[in-house]
Fold:
Amino acid sequence: MPKHVGIPVSDWFASRDWYVDVLGLSVEFEIPDRQVVSMRDEHDFAIMLYQAPVPPDPATFGFWFQVEDVQASFDAMSRKGVAFTSPPQKLRWGYGAELTDPDGYRVCLWDEKSMKANI
Structure:
């Protein structure tokens, strides 16, 4: 069964590009006249981005994306100029890396091997 979540964003077009360019999500569909886009990852998780006022503290909400190797993902993304708020390390939720999307939503990367070895 597909998993979906919807979040308000300040600029649906810029957020769409960020999720494609930075996280490698693909566009499932978009409705430009409604300023809505649905993004999907390779595990069938979908994020519906819709233009609307963003909550006052978006960093209290987070997404956890499992990657093959968190250190390799961090290194590759950093080489592309992606800024992280935390490099791979022990964090309150386990072991991984954190960054924020254009509106300040927290995006966490983790992998199963590092998580098991570092908690």
